Amino acid sequence: MNDLSAVPTAAQAIADTDAESSPSAMVMVVNHPLVQHKVTLARSEDTTTDNFRRLVREISQLLTYEATRDLAMETIAIKTPIAPMVSPVLSGKKLCLVSILRAGNGFLDGMLDLLPAARVGHIGLYRDPETLEPIEYYFKMPEDIHERMVIVVDPMLATGNSAIAALNRLKEAGVTTMKYVCLIASRPGLQALRAAHPDVAIVTAAIDEQLNEHGYIVPGLGDAGDRLYGTK
Q1: Alpha-carbon distance 28 to 15, whole Å?
Q2: Whole-angstrom Cα distance, residue 167 to residue 43?
Q3: Whole-number Å distance between alpha carbons of 27 and 192
Q4: Stated pTM of the model
Q5: Would you say residue 186 has pLDDT above 60?
Q6: What is the predicted pLDDT for the residue at 94?
Q7: What pLDDT, on the 0 to 100 scale, is given for residue 190?
Q8: Given a cut of 80, is residue 9 above it in pLDDT?
Q9: Domains and CATH numbers, the chain
Q10: What is the pLDDT of residue 138?
Q11: What is the mean pLDDT of residues 106-134?
Q12: CA-to-CA distance for 169 and 132, rounded, in angstroms?
């Protein structure tokens, strides 16, 4: 499949249609049954705050598993209780997880369960209700962020404006290797992000077709931040 016109029926990569872009650039929709079951529960308006928070944490763990499939490895010598052996471990500098505040923090806990040594950065962006354009109010990263692979996290990729602004900012800081992980992406937002940053791979659990007049994903799951933290 070489375009974004259909949602794949299994966890698979959708190659970018731009022949000049990096061959590693792609969108992965993780359609594992456990992921899709949990996404359905998270979408439901009947799901309580505590259960929504738990579901987002669990989904983030499963998406992290897919997003980190290509991490660099090396082998080291160890000794098991039975015998010496050579076995693989992760190599290079630890990852940096970058949360787009505030809803991105709902992804971090689950990801850090799997990547406890990862560094963490934060980008604070809010969306102007009139223009839907992002406005930055906070940026805090490890000093050596430019030497690390970065995974940017935010539950919802709606218009794509905040994601694009965050990736722009990180590239300005010298980051050269990034992925973007979200729970649900809108097709317009996905297309906007791919156009602005064709070199950044995207991992998501679902692609929804539309945005409403307020820039919310339809059908989506509502405001992820409000549902995570019990606010309106």
Answers
A1: 9
A2: 27
A3: 13
A4: 0.84
A5: yes
A6: 85
A7: 94
A8: no
A9: 12-229 (3.40.50.2020)
A10: 92
A11: 86
A12: 18
Counted residue by residue, the chain has a size of 232
Calpha distance 98→153 (Å, rounded): 6
Report residue 178 as tokens: 């990034």
3-state per-residue secondary structure call for 66-100: HHCCCCCEEEEEEECCCCEEEEEEECCCCCEEEEE
Residues serving a catalytic function are 127, 131, 223, 226
Under the banding of pLDDT at 50, 70 and 90, the label for residue 36 is very high
Region for 162 from its dihedrals, namely left if φ exceeds 0, alpha if ψ lies in -120 to 50, beta otherwise: alpha
pLDDT cut 90: percent of the chain above it: 67
| Long-range contacts of residues 21-24, Cβ cutoff 8 Å, at least 24 apart | 21/198, 21/199, 22/198, 22/199, 24/201
Tokens of 121: 């950065």
Q: At CB < 8 A and 24+ separation, what contacts does 137-141 make?
A: 138/101, 139/169, 141/96, 141/98, 141/170, 141/173
pLDDT at 25: 52
Q: Which residue has the tokens 């763990």?
A: 61
Which pLDDT value is given to residue 19? 31
- 75: its two tokens: 């082998």
